[in-house]
Amino acid sequence: MEQSKGASAIMVAWMLAIGLSIIGLVLSAAARPGNVQMAHVHLLITAGVSVVFALLAVRKMIAMQQAAASRTAIAAEGSRASGLVWAWAALAIAATYATGVLAWKEWFTHFLGLLGAGGLSLTLANVLHNSAAKGGEDETMLTLARYLAIFQLVGMVILIVGFLLDGQMKRFLVERFTDWPAKHIMFFGAVGVAAICGAALKYVPKSA
Known about the structure:
Helix content is 79%, strand content 0%. The longest helix has 31 residues, at 36-66. The chain is mainly α and 208 residues long. It is elongated.
């Protein structure tokens, strides 16, 4: 019962963070013209959400490990958390550009990519969760989850370094650029996913 309440509380925290942050991101992006301070607010929101997502996920995985949860259950949590970050990023970009708050012709391609990554992670999480519920340790799925975590971790580190070296995180300073909200979302989303995947690799050993 206590474990169920804890899981429900964490899910509520996730949903609140996603919903409230997207509202804040849309409002700050809309208020950017002529006011660069709102772009700073947008950046702070995305950074804060990334930290919250990562902390919620890592805290949950640590608690599961301490409670002697199965490797499959912990791997499911890592995949679920990554999927929620991807979903948040996709929804935030759609809320910014599909609504006409800002115009950016490439938003839909990025939206689809983020949505696809989120769907893959959440599907894997569901498969792992079902396996854990049956008391099984599916080594094939655990290996797949591990490879996916490694792939995401490496990919996110490359994206983070690339954005920093290419000056993508400074685009909000020039008002004519309209892709800066997406850059913030993708950069800090990558930070969150990297932290979650790193924790998953740490707390889900290769073998029992």
